[in-house]
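The instructor's notes for this session suggest beginning with a concrete chain rather than abstract definitions. Hand out the sequence below and ask the class to guess, before any prediction is shown, which regions might be ordered.
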Amino acid sequence: MSPEHLLAKHSPFIELDRTTWSRLASTIEVPLTAQEIDDLRGIGDKLDVDEVQQVYLPLSRLLNLYVNATSSLNHMTNDFLEVSERRVPFIIGVAGSVAAGKSTTARILEALLRRWPSTPNVQLVTTDGFLYPNAELQRRGIMDRKGFPESYNRRALLRFVSDIKSGSPLVTAPRYSHLTYDILPDERVEVTSPDVLIVEGLNVLAPARVGKDDRAALSLSDFFDFSIYVDARTTDIERWYVERFLSLRDSAFQNPQSYFTRYAELSDEDAVKLARSIWKNINEPNLLENVRPTRGRAKLILSKDTDHKISRVLLRKS
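After discussion, reveal the predicted structure:
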């Protein structure tokens, strides 16, 4: 047996190509219109009806099975303990690099899972709301490391997810504005007893930190019932990031309220040069040092090809 076959045999993941994966929900119709799918697609993503039918519909079916199985187990546990508890929210973590398409993945799963009868109440939060405000990042001297693990209020994020998992009827989180590139001080995102909560962010699968006493604290992923990593080659993600930067230059950056409005009048050459500099100095190091090392912790990996389309699905065996 070749080393490649031996490695595949002992991999913790079952690897399925897109065609094989798509058959797992071939008899289910896409419950979204082409316009709805277009509205959910992020800048630069290639999401279309075929992608939803072949990739995301089977994934939503699998997630629905997990939700129902987890709910049944919770009911049996409550019966055993002779207690009556409200339904525990099922939490899904979605991780991946900047510009890889994790936000689109989270939004499309939110829309699809809402169509399943057992999960009408699906809510989505991003960890952007738990970034420290820009003023605090500047005070700490880490404004150029925004998106790195140390730029998040980890304690507040853990408390937020813990309260949801504990069944609190109303939990709030700070609201982040991509326009102003900062926390909105007077606005909150409300999460109200969801059937499913999707938590999307760069570092949501990061392992627990080890304290001074060599004891590991809780990690955010300890609260997840399922986790997804959106994967692609670094060179492809860099290209998508540059393309997205150019698109934003011609759209959102034109808004006078945008934090990046100073980039709106850059020439193509200067915009590409700046985007690549930001990628090389901030986003790529964060991807290689902090984000991609968490890929193997995911329950499922969506692997994208150079055209931004998902070509393979890897599902953890146990």
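Then share the key points. The radius of gyration is 20 Å. Residues 1-7 have pLDDT under 50 and may be disordered.
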